What we know:
The structure holds 2 protein chains of 2 kinds. Chain A is built from 8 helices and no strands. Chain A has helices at residues 2-40, 45-60, 63-73, 86-111, 115-123, 128-158, 170-181, 185-212. The longest helix of chain A has 39 residues, at 2-40. Helix content of chain B is 38%, strand content 27%. Chain B has 9 helices and 11 strands. Chain B has helices at 42-49, 81-88, 106-118, 122-135, 151-163, 181-196, 208-214, 232-237, 242-251; strands spanning 4-13, 16-26, 31-35, 57-62, 65-70, 76-78, 91-94, 169-173, 200-204, 217-222, 225-230. In chain B, strands 7-8-9-3-10-11 form a 6-stranded mixed β-sheet, with helices on both faces. A 5-stranded antiparallel β-sheet of chain B has the order 2-1-4-5-6. In chain B, helix 3 runs parallel beside helix 5 (151-163). The two termini of chain B are 36 Å apart. The interface between A and B is medium-sized, with 22 and 28 residues. The structure holds adenosine-5'-triphosphate and magnesium ion (MG). The site of magnesium ion has 4 residues of chain B, from helix 1.
Amino acid sequence: xxxxxxxxxxxxxxxxxxLQMFFSTIILALPLGLLLALARISRFKALSSAVGxxxxxxRGTPLMLQLLFIYFGLPFVPYIGVRxxxxxxxxxxFVLNYAAYFAEIFRAGIQSIDRGQYEGAKxxxxxxxxxxxxxxLPQVIKRVLPPVxxxxxxxxxDTSLIYVLAMNDLLRTTRAIVQRDFxxxxxxxxxxxxxIMTLVLTWMFQKLEQRxxxxxx
Amino acid sequence: xxxxKAINIHKKFNNLEVLKGISLQVNQGEVIAIxxxxxxxxxxxxxxxxxxxxxxxxxxxxxxxxxxxxGPDGQVRYATEAEARRICRRMGMVFQQFNLxxxxxxxxxxxxxxxxxxxxxxxxxxxxxxELLHKVGLAEKRDVYPSRLSGGQKQRxxxxxxxxxxxxxxxxxxxxxALDPELTGEVLKTMRKLAEEHMTMIVVTHEMAFxxxxxxxxxxxxxxxxxEQGDPETVFGSPSQSRxxxxxxxxx
Lengths: 217, 252
Ligand SMILES: Nc1ncnc2c1ncn2[C@@H]1O[C@H](COP(=O)(O)OP(=O)(O)OP(=O)(O)O)[C@@H](O)[C@H]1O
Ligand SMILES: [Mg+2]
């Protein structure tokens, strides 16, 4: 017990890094995913295809590869090459990757809304923008909550990939302690930390789903 | 001035010619019933009037404003998007499948468009919306979500929602076809009430009794054309075209 208390401070510090990465990613990836989804269904073919290629690239290659490329590879790309600090590099990789997944979830959600909803709004004089904002997207939210919840929980665990950039998140801190003390207890403590984070998220999404359960379709 | 003036409307879906030159002028307060076999183009014609479908040729004029017009080169030119929206919102539309907004309560369904499109104030409009609900007999369903309503109630909400925009013309596309037979009566009664208030109406319908009793003019469409039109007594009682006779024999 005393041992567990002694390793809590560093593990909590690691958790802060993990949570920072998680929140920065989710806050940016959700809106970016929505924009990409709207671009993907746009009637401007060039835009739609460009986003299609983007989604294919980011869903078709390992997140770890994207992470390594943006940190180590990007500085050597002619013209756009920049060296990003480790946190920024990781964040960019996570946001770009998760936005691609969210985009596909939102696109499928938008396309699952009946054409009659658009027509009902149109004959009432609503613009495309008003129709999306007031009629379509609110209904999409209800439909995409379960897959978005899944992705979000996956993200909590995916953040541990940043160990490859030698960032001291929860998992890397834990490993360091295990190697130092020749004791596997920290692994169990870390597991509990991850479980608590995903439990809170699960609970939040449950609340959201309940809120949207007031109406049926 | 005609409420609606459609001249020589043509419409193709891919290579299928669905409307082959339809002309129709609708006067203020007229109730027009469009009847005809399935696939004859009734819905398509109605949907062209409020640009749910675009026409390939012809002229569409709503209360003297040109919505679409094909010039000498045969190209159809539509009014600008904003102008077209302004013109078309004078026509309310009621669909076979209701198309209510499921995430809004009944009252919210009614006030949504007046608020977002016309920018009226919520407090100011709610009493009007309640009055409309009262008129269609659903005052007590104000705060209920559409999924809790019967088909007939849904359709009456849809009618009230269209009326909330204060339209000059109402278009109905088979408003009772998705309903159980015992629920059609309440919807037809609401429509009858509108007709008595001299709302200009175009009703695509399979309800021959309704067409006969309520319409001022009955139009029989077949194969993308208006085959015959006239007052209900003439069209139903002594049709002059053999296609009309054959159709009426099948449905009555
Ligand atoms: N979006 C579309 N794309 C292709 N073809 C269509 C489309 N909408 C309608 N059609 C075709 O156009 C023809 C006329 O259809 P329309 O719906 O106007 O007929 P209708 O008279 O309303 O028939 P019903 O009584 O069955 O409703 C049909 O052959 C139909 O298959
Ligand atoms: Mg039809």
